[in-house]
Amino acid sequence: MNSDLGSVVIRSILAMADGSASDFEELVHPAAVDRENVVQPPSSRVPGPAGFYATALWLREAFAELRYEIHHSVADGDLVAVNSTMSGRHVAPFVTYNEAGAIDTVFPPTGKTFAATQSHWFRVESGLVLEHWANRDDLTQAKQLGWVPPTPLYLLRMARAKSRAGRAA
Length: 169
Prior knowledge:
The chain is built from five helices and seven strands. It has helices at residues 3-18, 21-27, 49-62, 138-145, 152-168, and strands spanning 28-34, 63-76, 79-90, 94-97, 103-107, 113-125, 128-136. A five-stranded mixed β-sheet has the order 1-7-6-3-2. It has a two-stranded antiparallel ribbon with strand order 4-5. The N and C termini lie far apart (44 Å).
């Protein structure tokens, strides 16, 4: 694997857990697109480092002890694929959004931990991340956090959390 491509990609994944805005400026192309941002807040739907950093802040707000473990990475031309595990503790409401950017679902904090595998794909240009898309094991994460299957009490907590989030928006 081209170690330069792999390095920038792996650093960009690890930055999601604890990187600063300046770290994303060093790793992400100004025109970069995150193809996974359809359920993310509108602030993360902008191109470039600002969008990627907003995604990191969104994840960190809901999940303490956020961590990525890199298992494998492989490059082919300007594409890099990474197999990883994301883990953390659900400590604050996790808010997802619809395509129009309105609040869709709010998962109240459970205090539970999770570890779910993810495959990330990147296109790199001029040593910077230009494009990102992913396949995540969201069902495993949801089961570990107690979101699935939801209990009647948790469904009530979700409705209340969505109402509060809507008022705060």
